[in-house]
Amino acid sequence: MTRKISRVLVSVFYKENLEPIIEELARHQATFISTGGTQTFIEGFGHPVTPVESVTGFPSIFGGRVKTLHPAIFGGILYRRGDNTHEEEASRFNVAPIDLVIVDLYPFVETVAAGKPEAEVIEKIDIGGISLIRAAAKNYHDVLIVSSRTQYDELLTLLKEKQCTTGLDDRRRFAAMAFDVTAAYDAAIFDYFNAREQLPVFRKSFGPARPLRYGENPHQQATYYGDLDALFEQLNGKELSYNNLVDIDAAPGLLREFQDETAFVIVKHTNACGAATAPTVKEAYMKAYQADTLSAFGGILVTNRTVDLAAATEMNPLFFEILVAPDFEPEALDLLRSKKNRIILQLKTFPEPKKQFRSLLGGVIEQDADLKTDSADDLKTVTQRTPTPGEVRALLFASKVCKHTKSNTIVLANDGQMLASGTGQTSRVDALKQAIDKARAFGFDLKGAVMASDAFFPFPDCVELAWKAGITAVIQPGGSVKDKDSIDFCDAHDMAMVFTGIRHFRH
Question: 376-499 falls under which CATH superfamily?
């Protein structure tokens, strides 16, 4: 069912890239209806425009809140062509058909993101625009709806290829995209209001769709929904994959814990296989790499400081998938770009989600993000021996890494360096054994090191194993009915133990 585009309603907030569409429509003798700034924009190219007010016989009122909401406009969009009753009513009430609606919505999301006051945010809730989109999409049998500037290229191609006509499949496709636009827009408005009301409803808007090469495995399809461009600028390398994004997501949260220090993290399968702080990026990288030189191969490298040439020279021989940093010295970037597939991302801002989501059992779980960082003020010494200042620094470092490692987990550390971790084990004893074995395998002497656990010890077996390995101080949340057994063992062997009162499970 082919429809010729003869009469077009255009009302857009963003006018970039609209000119070639207007020119193509005008070339095929289409006429224009418009409002305000869009009308002036079209007239600037020498094309006559019928103001909406001339169609409705009614001026824009209430500060522009009511402009297009009128039967002369919505009737022209919604009446069914070829339906005898509709055709008779259109003739009787002098309603002329509208064949194409080009509209975008007020920048509500952008206004919220800019931190504008509520009065300004409310005025960016589009009423007329979203009504036009829904009306045109509903009547896709007769009307083409273009609901976002992201669709301009596709529209222009369609106009050129089909000589300003559309087929039913074309109109249905644009209608589907239109309802996607309205759904995301309404979800964003709901998120804004629900930030205060906290209604128990899961309805989220995550941003544009970005198809990925494949999912967790090559036989799985995947799409990312969100605005990666707001977080990163890609400076080199191939397209990001599903697994790349999952690993990258694991690193910024850990780096946020070290904003006042130069830190470096190496991530493999969402866990830190190396983490360190140091005076320079080069030193921090070397300390992080030493923790597990085997797992670092093919890993994700992330730092919170500018990568200079010294650091780049040190890390360049390593095969790694991705490097993320807030900035790069030009010479360092040139060196790192020598491997064309290596992905280099410049971090614009640390993502700071307040909520977390996970799909399971055909549904979704939502929870508050774990934004608690253990500090010296949280520590309660429960043993006879108080940890030394050096041990306290090491304990807090280990606790931060432990918080971002899969449970059950144990992290061993000393002097701003992760020595090893036991991750994702079904028992805490196995996690500790894994950590001790790894530390020794990479040449670390655990004498004087500290241990962090993401949950309490139900038995004293872990502190006993730690003592035998040379560990002198322990940080854990506490809370077991048998806490005293572990405390007594520490007291008997001159170990220090602190409780935080906060558990950091990560499943």
Answer: AICAR transformylase, duplication domain (3.40.140.20)
Cα–Cα nearest to 479, from 491, 467, 487: 487
Calpha distance 248→15 (Å, rounded):
35
Instruction: Say how many residues make up the chain.
Output: 507
Q: Which residue has the tokens 């009614």?
A: 58
Catalytic positions: 138, 269
**Residues carrying CATH 3.40.140.20, the chain:** 229-347, 376-499
- Specify the CATH number for 229-347; select among 3.10.310.10, 3.40.50.670, 3.40.140.20, 3.30.420.10: 3.40.140.20
What percentage of the chain carries pLDDT values higher than 90? 85
CATH 3.40.50.1380 residue ranges in the chain?
3-197
Classify domain 3-197 at the CATH superfamily level.
Methylglyoxal synthase-like domain (3.40.50.1380)
Average pLDDT over the chain reads: 94
- Helical axes 71-78 vs 84-92, angle rounded to 10°: 150
Q: Tens digit of pLDDT for each residue in 98-146?
A: 999 999 999 998 999 899 999 999 999 999 999 999 999 999 999 999 9
> Whole-model pTM above 0.85?
no
pLDDT digits (tens, 9 = 90+) for 39-94: 999 999 999 999 999 898 888 888 888 888 899 999 999 999 999 999 999 999 99
For strands 300-303 and 343-347, give the pairing: unpaired
- In 29-83, which ranges are continuous DSSP H helix? 36-43, 52-56, 71-78
R_g (Cα) of the chain, nearest Å: 30
Task: Answer yes or no: are the C-beta atoms of 77 and 143 closer than 8 Å.
Answer: yes
The 10s digit of each residue's pLDDT in 328-361 is 999 999 999 999 999 999 999 887 788 899 999 9
As beta bridge partners, residue 101 has 9, 145
Helix (H) or strand (E) holding 421: strand 417-422
CA pair distance 100, 145, nearest whole angstrom: 6
Output the CA–CA distances (angstroms, integers) from residue 103 to 62, 130, 136, in the order listed.
20, 9, 10
Tell me the residue type at 325.
A
Using CA atoms in the order 67, 146, 12, 60, what is the torsion angle rounded to 10 degrees?
A: -10
